[in-house]
Amino acid sequence: MRTVDLIQKKRDGHELSTDEIKWLINGYVDGTVPDYQMSAFAMAVYFKGMSTREISDLTMAMVATGEQIDLSAIAGIKVDKHSTGGVGDKVTLILVPLVASFGVPVAKMSGRGLGHTGGTLDKLESIKGFQIEVSQEDFISQVQQAGLAVIGQSNNLVKADKLLYALRDVTATVDTIPLIASSVMSKKIAAGADAILLDVTVGEGAFMKNVEDARLLAQTMVDLGKAVGRKTVAVLTDMSQPVGTSIGNRLEILEALDILQGKGREDVTEFICELAQIMLGLAQVEKSLDEVRQHLQDGSALKKFEEMVLAQGGDLEDLYRPVQVEHQLPVYAEKSGYITALPAMEFGLFAMKLGAGRAVKTDELDYETGLVFHKKVGAAVVQGEQIATIYSNENISENMLTNFQKNVRIEDRVVKSKEIIEIVS
User: Fold this and answer.
1) Do residue 56 and residue 97 come from a single domain?
2) Residues 188-208, buried b or exposed e (16+ Cβ, 10 A)?
3) Cβ contact 161:187 at 8 Å
4) Is residue 36 included in any domain, yes or no?
5) In what order do the strands lie in the sheet with 370-373?
6) 345 with 187: CB under 8 angstroms?
7) Are residues 83 and 18 both part of a single domain?
8) Of 111, 164, 276, 388, which has the fewest beta carbons less than 10 angstroms from its beta carbon?
9) Helix or strand or coil: residue 52?
């Protein structure tokens, strides 16, 4: 085979065979297929797409390029969860211990944030001493004993994805369904869980900007999971505004703790309880929403989170301390009315400029900085009322404050938001 022939075949809209896809991926990993040719192939896929069979073959070829974790030593149905990314997304921090509090083992590998999207690992590392680099043996042992673990992805897992994602990131081929689906599902399949919940975010702050594309991505990933014997359900969730009230690593930990104590906003609490109910159902544990919520109110989920923090070297005293920044700047409503929009991407980028996110992978984070909204979409506001607080270690310029305020859309109409848009199974 020749790489140029496979590029041309895909460029002209034809399907590649299973053997051709496997040859191409293996060649890319071993270095015989250079970056420039794989870039051309990714662009051909971007414009011509792939069939369901091709995407399945691509996914499994990628899985085969690294180790596959065997979780059979852990009793019960092991569940995992993945989000396609968003702003203020602290869902994993609450959902994992909530599900584990019902005796369902959760073995999760998470990622870091980049650009306007936040990463679960970064949030956990804002806790003093918390270790995300854990050996496979210790990972399995922790899930056996504590019932949950959230760690960084092994360097030996799906080697093709690491190479291909870095290439897509610099060649404008990230947002194409075949490559997103194969990237996500190759990692989830290799990670070894029996059942997978996919949180497919939709809207201004997500990769998928509209419901139609999100639905297609969700169905593609669900079909991939089912094809290899993994129970898989996807949930389309709104990412037009940030999740919850906070953006920023330390601030999101503190909001997660509030929710884990039954003190969080009603909308995000209800949303996470609905996701937990779905995950429990995948593990054949049927619970009502009231029963799920009870584990937030009675401290069961919080106890599990603290157990995970301790198991991974975290300091419980540090866990509960407030943020430590030089400046806390209040933001006030410029007029009266109702908040109709808080554009997730704009505020994600704003938080990134404060140091809460990375523009490039080598950027260092300031774990303490970020934003807290005191009002969300649908809320009534009065001119001069405080609607947010900016936490920063640098002085906030008038221009930055103006940009912040102009993105808080206030009108004379009420807009209602809904976290779960659709369930795909």
Assistant:
1) no
2) bbbbbbbbbbbbbbbbbbbbb
3) yes
4) yes
5) 246-247, 370-373, 386-392, 327-332
6) no
7) no
8) 111
9) helix
In tens, the pLDDT along 8-35 reads 999 999 999 999 999 999 999 999 999 9
Structure-token match 């503190």, residue found: 254
Q: Is residue 69 part of a domain?
A: no
Greater confidence, 202 or 153?
Answer: 202
Domain boundary among 267, 287, 318: 318
Rounded Cα gap, residues 245 and 255, in angstroms: 8
pTM of structure: 0.93
User: Which of the residues are catalytic?
Assistant: 82, 161, 168, 183, 187
User: What is the distance between the alpha carbons of residues 111 and 402, in angstroms, rounded to a whole number?
Assistant: 33
Task: With cut-offs at 50, 70 and 90, classify the pLDDT of residue 252.
Answer: very high
- Tell me the torsion sign for CA atoms 14, 17, 20, 26: positive
The parent domain of residue 357 ranges over 327-411
Q: Of the ranges 139-143, 206-210, 298-302, which one carries the lowest mean pLDDT score? A: 206-210
CATH code: domain of residue 196: 3.40.1030.10
Residue 129 lies in a domain: yes
* Average pLDDT, integer, range 340-364: 90
Q: How far apart are CA 179 and CA 377, in angstroms?
A: 33
pLDDT tens readout for residues 90-120: 999 999 999 999 999 999 988 777 666 778 9
Average pLDDT of span 160-174: 88
Number of domains observed in the structure of the chain: 3
Same domain, yes or no: 55 and 198:
no
Per-residue pLDDT at 253: 98
Tell whether 164 and 25 lie within a shared domain.
Answer: no
Are residues 294 and 232 part of one domain? Answer: yes
Contact 206, 239 (CB under 8 A): yes
Closest Cα partner for 147 from 269, 320, 301, 289? Answer: 301
